[in-house]
């Protein structure tokens, strides 16, 4: 296992599969105090519900303690302290740092100065590797496999860090992708070029109807308001897609809808009661996956 988890590319295919297996064991038995006496810092410089609380719950269920903050307004960053100095100091107090930051690349900066392992809990529009591991857990749980799936990603593929990490991870498993996005929010070229280099097939479309009935996983995403440099640009695309229960009449029987959450308007609440909705279970299992990530990176599994 690597020391840090900054990008999903830090993990090999075998390491990804090992983490998913350990997560399955934790789901079967979630009270396992491998980390008695350890301390983990959860440093969130950007809002979060699921990632922060599931990490904190994971740490507690492993027997360790959490320190940290849910935003940086009461830290010495408000006095001008740099991220690097903050991380250097916190490294002295803890055994691991989990960090979310609005700046793409911030987790990498933190890892370079930290004396303890750093886990990226989301850095700007760049990467969200722990979200990807729980997405893979949900995909394998619902489809019985990761290989050879038809995956349709819908929404903000430009700023959505969860889809960036997921595309890279699924590339180990011979997928076929459909990228459904308006022109302004298309998947960035560097991810498409990486798929081209690996010979992985994909199509791009602006219409949600194009591939709705031909996918195993429908990965919906929120338009990332906080990443837009211009409010007017956000207003133009914010409600571009809205999935309703009435649109699901022709989908594959085992198809599942995932979403990293939070959702805004892109999935109507009537979808929640359909057999295709899996996003709440997906987020719930995130705690087991994060227990596995922490245990594996610290060398306990
Ligand atoms: N999926 C995700 O990162 O959710 P939060 O922003 O609530 O942590």
What does this structure look like?
The protein has 301 residues and is of the alpha/beta class. The chain has two domains: 8-128 and 286-297, Aspartate/ornithine carbamoyltransferase (Rossmann fold, 3-Layer(aba) Sandwich), CATH 3.40.50; 129-283, Aspartate/ornithine carbamoyltransferase (Rossmann fold). 35% of the residues lie in helices and 15% in strands. It is built from ten helices and nine strands. Helix 2 links the parallel strand 1 and strand 2 (65-69). It starts with 12 loop residues before the first helix and ends with a helix. Phosphoric acid mono(formamide)ester is lined by residues 48-51, 122, 131, 260-262.
Query: Any guess at the CATH architecture of the largest domain?
Result: 3-Layer(aba) Sandwich
**What is the fold-level CATH name, i.e. the topology of the largest domain?**
Rossmann fold
* CATH homologous superfamily placement of the largest domain: Aspartate/ornithine carbamoyltransferase
Instruction: Assign the structural class, choosing from mainly alpha, mainly beta, alpha/beta, alpha+beta, or little secondary structure.
Output: alpha/beta
Q: What count of helical segments does DSSP give?
A: 10
What is the global morphology?
A: globular
Distance between the termini: 10 Å
Order of helices and strands: HEHEHEHEHEHEHEEHEHH
For the CA atoms, what is the radius of gyration?
Answer: 19 Å
Strand content: 5-15%
| Helix content range | 25-40%
Which regions are unreliable across 5 or more consecutive residues at pLDDT < 50? none
